[in-house]
Amino acid sequence: MSEATMTEPVHVSVPPALDPRLQAVVELAQDMAAALTPLDAVRAAAVRATTALGATMAAVSVWDRESGRLRVLVNHGDLAPGEEELPADESYPVADFPEIVTYLEEHWTTGRLPRAWVQTAENIEAPHSVHAHPGAGAFCQQRAVGLRRRGRECCLVAPIVLHGQAWGELYLARTVGLPVFTDADADYATLLAAQISAGLAQTERLADLRRLAFTDPLTGLANRRAVDARLESALQAHNRDNTVVSLVVCDVNGLKRVNDQLGHEVGDRLLERFAHQLSLAAAKLPGSLAARLGGDEFCLLVEGQKADEVVVVAEELCARALALADGEGVACGVASTGDSIGPVTTSDRLFRLADAAQYRAKAARAAHPVVAGRSHGPGFTPDPTVLLADSADPHHRADGGRRPGQGRAHFGDRRRFRGAAHSADPGQLLAVVLASLDQHGAVRVHHPADTLSRLVTVAETAARLLDAVGWWVSYVPPGSQLMRTAQHAVYRMTSGPTSSGAETQRAQIEAPDAVFDLGYYPLTRRAVRGGAFALRSGAAGNDPAEEAMMVVSGYKGMLAAGGGNAAGGWLVELFADESTLPFGQVTAALRALVAVALSGPTSPPP
User: Fold this and answer.
1) Cα separation of 48 and 508, whole Å?
2) Residue 407 has pLDDT above 60, yes or no
3) In what order do the strands lie in the sheet with 117-120?
4) Closest Cα to residue 447, out of 596, 339, 605?
5) In angstroms, what CA-CA distances link 548 with 502, 537, 552, 582, 598?
6) What does pTM read for this prediction?
7) Can you point out the beta strands (E) in 211-307?
8) Distance between CA atoms of 533 and 531, rounded to whole angstroms?
9) Do the bridges between strand 370-371 and strand 69-77 make them parallel or antiparallel, or are there none, so unpaired?
10) 473 touches 571 (CB < 8 A)
11) Average pLDDT of 55-75?
12) Which helix (H) or strand (E) holds 189?
């Protein structure tokens, strides 16, 4: 290479490597900051200290003042026979190691960090270091005996002080054949102990913050955040290995009355007493979490227990709640993946099911729990609680998941069915329609003998609640086989299998005075005589004539209930599209409501 092409060498300034012991302190601080519990923190301290000081083992112990013993929390490294990494009960009388009592005295008299000291297996007269405590010979013998028994050459003991009080000690040891710890090692161990103290203080503060964040301040139970976090992990276990997860939701009855009449302090005492009962219930179900969700609402989250066992405990809880002074018991709902409630892949759905069960219990003022998935049988297919919960969730799918693009619903919206515009719960249908009939009778808008207006109230209220396409009320004169429309309402258009579906429906709306011969409609004929039926388009066994009426108009289902009085025969019909809630389980309820509307004074339609 010629001189012309030669260049001066480039000198790159490389920062000196961080001193290994300083690096160890930094890593210790980082590990302890990442610890979730005090035990995680002291374990991290033992691991880092072992490496930093070239020890063969390390232990962290705490002074248990109540028992007067030095209790070992963690051992790390080459352990002797009988030593365990996380000992269940390894402790020593503080009287055998009285130097711990001198930690504070030294701290206050010198104003410096409590100093570490070195002890050898051979020297039983005084610690092998200039860092010796006054009167060390009185207690060093126990340390030396322990070293010889475990085949160790020496140990290094560093006091840990927390909040101005002796907390415990960091203990490090080397086996026989290794060099004895030096004074420099003792100085460094003093620094590590101070860092451990700072880390423990931080972990303690975080634990306090977590306790505040996940605890209800009035009752001491877990709060909503704790339930959310626990339920998410429980359902992960359920979806992974089919672990049964159950949720019991309770509302304390009569709290508003107690607050209004006796004062909020008495109301708070009622909540606290019920919380005690809920805590006792949790104790009977290992793996459960008792929580106050807010206000008068509590829950019990149970993981890994059979659904029947949860229901038994819920029954006992209801009975105990009834015995509480000033209270009126609780409304209790239970939902468990161990029951027939369909797939549960999200916490939203399990909460919604338990809420729906609790809502039905409260509406019925039931003294016992309502359990989702346990009302199957004739007239109750699908289960009314399951249907109520799922009908209120616009994102629910049959597989228990959520529709694409829909994330987890906000917890506060889980009771969307309460006061919702639509519901297929038979109990709610009865309550809402009967209330409408009572209001109708009170305001006397119509003549009391106006049968048609009462039936219209039933039809309109039920259709709105079920989100039906529309309704028809029809009339059959006494002794006749011909049925004609008396009144109707349509809320939205449907589309049939062809373009003629909407045209047919529009023609029915504009000219609703068609006459039907009941001889061709056997189901309708029986309904007019006091029966009821529900049809779903395409279902096996449908009556061909009734099916044809649905299909040509674009309906997906229909519900009919009727009966007779002195004025003649009557029929209320509701029609469904894709948005309408399922009709099947409310058939009997609609039949009963029509019977109520047909009672009393009668008159034919105008």
Assistant:
1) 84
2) no
3) 91-93, 69-77, 57-64, 165-175, 152-162, 117-120
4) 605
5) 15, 9, 6, 20, 29
6) 0.45
7) 245-252, 288-294, 297-303
8) 7
9) unpaired
10) yes
11) 87
12) helix 183-213
